[in-house]
Amino acid sequence: MTEPTDTDDFAEAGRKLFAGAADFVWAASRIDNLPPMEGVEIAFAGRSNVGKSSLVNALTGRRTLARTSHTPGRTQELNFFDIGGRLRLVDMPGYGFAAAGKEKVEAWTRLIHAYLRGRANLARVYVLIDARHGLKANDAGVLDGLDTAAVSYQIVLTKADELKGGALERRVGETEEAIRRRPAAFPAVQPTSSRTGLGIPELRASIARLLAERGEAP
């Protein structure tokens, strides 16, 4: 099959990728309970209640593939989803939710860091940032860890529909400037809205392009 070569091709490849089957396949609460490293994985990380599960559902066009909740800290495991037999998508526990209890937060943090450091088939981490608030100190700590581990990541702004006028453009610009010198950061910041669909096709296309770069032609 011919590999996509331009923006339109990747947009169509991304649409087809996420239009197929999407299934929950594994949940891991400990590093010794991870599934075998098979195929290409991408992971979604972010502060608690930033909208990771909602974005997974929006990407796949399913309302309940990933559990969503208005209660921060609901996702307490690494949840693995198979996308059309070609990609594994990992919904990670949110970070920075102190109300969950110090011991539990520390356990989640160790799990997240161990996964990020030791997963050879992890192609990219999409770090979700609430567009209304921008990068915070605990986000910067996660980015520092990804830079140190040389794990490729891209910033995805969630809830972007809630910024009006030129506020979103300014947020994108300041975020791109903040990561400009970070060695593992993908330079482009992607604004999204799970509610309106803003940026969802572009994010699908970005993931399709990543697959092609890893030798997984659609």
Automatic annotation (TrEMBL):
Residues 38-213 form the EngB-type G domain. GO terms for cellular component: cytosol. GO terms for biological process: division septum assembly. It comes from the Bacteria. Its cofactor is Mg(2+). Keywords: Cell cycle, Cell division, GTP-binding, Magnesium, Metal-binding, Nucleotide-binding, Septation. The keyword Magnesium applies. NCBIfam families: GTPase_YsxC (TIGR03598). This is Probable GTP-binding protein EngB. It comes from Enterovirga aerilata.
